[in-house]
Amino acid sequence: MRTVLLTVGKAKAPFAEADAHYLRLLDRYQPVELVEARDDEALVSRLPAEGRVTAIDARGRAMGSEEWAGWLQERRLEARDLYLLLGGPRGLPQAALERADDVISLGPQTLAHQLARVVVLEQLFRAAKIAAGEPYHY
């Protein structure tokens, strides 16, 4: 199973360092490929024809850490490539939301899109550690 985080825009300091940090930590559990599209149109053109597509959007369902771990385990059992979509400053385009198999929210607060990338990577890392039966601070 391949895991891809497809985002709009490139990470800039200080977020780029945090992205790299979590990508390194994830390599042991659930390697994640980061694909940065230049704009909404480029993101939509990279949507896969096959695989599980999950949009990260405020209108989705919020999950606690244990739920993230269960969700990740379910995706692993599906054994399909997993694509996580994260929009830019204006969120995800409608075409991306329509292609999504499910939609997850990071909560009701508004996050800068570059910070949201870090939060998604951190949640994937936390979920992978929980799924591996390893302790993680709550």
Describe the structure.
- It is a single chain.
- The protein is α/β, with parallel strands linked by helices and 138 residues long.
- The protein has a single domain (3-131), classed as Alpha/beta knot (3-Layer(aba) Sandwich).
- Helices cover 41% and strands 23% of the residues.
- It contains five helices and five strands.
- The protein has a five-stranded parallel sheet with strand order 2-1-4-3-5.
- Helix 1 links the parallel strand 1 (3-8) and strand 2.
- Helix 1 (15-26) runs parallel beside helix 5 and helix 3 packs across helix 5 (113-131).
- The radius of gyration is 14 Å and the shape is globular.
- The model has no long low-confidence stretch (mean pLDDT 94).
Key words describing this protein structure:
138 residues, alpha/beta, Alpha/beta knot, five-stranded parallel beta sheet, 5 helices, 5 strands
CATH topology (level 3) name: Alpha/beta knot
Q: What is the residue-averaged pLDDT?
A: 94
What's the order of the H and E elements? EHEHEHEHEH
Using the 3D structure, state the CATH architecture: 3-Layer(aba) Sandwich
Short characterization:
The chain is 41% helix and 23% strand. The protein has 138 residues and is α/β, with parallel strands linked by helices. It has one domain: SPOUT methyltransferase, trefoil knot domain (Alpha/beta knot, 3-Layer(aba) Sandwich), CATH 3.40.1280.
Topology:
Elements: E1 3-8, H1 15-26, E2 32-37, H2 40-45, E3 52-62, H3 65-78, E4 82-86, H4 94-99, E5 102-105, H5 113-131
Parallel strand pairs: 1-2, 1-4, 3-4, 3-5
